[in-house]
Amino acid sequence: MTDASFDTSANNNTHPGEAQFGDYFALLKPRVMSLVVFTALVGLIAAPVSVHPFIAFCAVLFIAVGGGASGALNMWWDADIDAVMKRTTSRPIPSGKVEPREAMALGLALSGFAVIMLGLASNWIAAGLLAFTIFFYAVIYTMWLKRWTPQNIVIGGAAGAFPPMIGWAVATGGVSVESVLMFMLIFMWTPPHFWALALFMKSDYKEAGVPMLTVTHGRKVTRAHILVYTILLAPLAIGTGLTSIGGPIYMTTAVVLNAMFLWGAVKIWRRPEEAAEADKYRVEKSFFGLSLLYLFLHFGAILAEAALRPYGLGGW
């Protein structure tokens, strides 16, 4: 831990036997895990090589466990920050339900289990990608980038972008243009998604000492960054529709969603801070909600194209 005083208070407030199964499960960040499962599954199904349903199930399960393991390690290291931020004070460690060392042990154990089992169930390329993903999120992002640079979300976004690439590797045993594009779609989506959140959660990050862009450069600069990344994201998302994982369903979805996302980014960029404060960041919160729908529908469209392809309906 990085804050000794917090460690002491956590240990004083934690009593053996109090933690329930739900508390340990919460360490795995189930909401994030659901995104990991969905995008990994899409990557696996969209791949040109079919996988036995049981192997596919096991592979996605182990990828999910690996994602949960990195979440537990993140909560262990960031317990001091979580204790300060309003939206994270109820997490298992700052609330005193789970001891930091228990979270660390759980994260390490599940990491090893997930990587080994994925390698045995599918192939070691996929397992290696999963191992690197866990390392990237737990060490490079959580322990280094998050507290060091306002570009933490930009670089750290790679950790959340690997699952579809891992799913693709489960099926094919390698990496391709399509899997890289799915990776890039999440990677480029992450900054505007999180910066929109940071616009109306600035005080939390400032109090916790996290150098989010809103804290280090102000909200006006953050608004401009959201617009720039959204502009860069649009051609990438639409261009993905021209590859083997695309098709009319995906292309229609991408064009409509990116037009909406671009318009939302322009509105955020043009907003004076006084207007945002007056309506309690209504536009920013709406953009954040749209960003969640944006990613789900893009990958949902890829999934639909793959599901319809055997019937001659999906793809170009």
Automatic annotation (TrEMBL):
It catalyses: heme b + (2E,6E)-farnesyl diphosphate + H2O = Fe(II)-heme o + diphosphate. The chain crosses the membrane at residues 32-48, 54-77, 98-118, 124-145, 152-174, 180-200, 221-242, 248-266, 287-308. Its EC number is 2.5.1.141. Keywords: Cell membrane, Heme biosynthesis, Membrane, Transferase, Transmembrane, Transmembrane helix. One of its GO terms (biological process) is heme O biosynthetic process. The keyword Transcription does not apply. It is found in: Cell membrane. Pathway: Porphyrin-containing compound metabolism; heme O biosynthesis; heme O from protoheme: step 1/1. The keyword Transcription does not apply. It is a multi-pass membrane protein. GO terms for molecular function: protoheme IX farnesyltransferase activity. GO terms for cellular component: plasma membrane. It comes from the Bacteria. Interacts with CtaA. Carbon 2 of the heme B porphyrin ring is defined according to the Fischer nomenclature. Converts heme B (protoheme IX) to heme O by substitution of the vinyl group on carbon 2 of heme B porphyrin ring with a hydroxyethyl farnesyl side group. Belongs to the UbiA prenyltransferase family. Protoheme IX farnesyltransferase subfamily. This is Protoheme IX farnesyltransferase. It comes from Thalassovita mediterranea. The gene is ctaB.
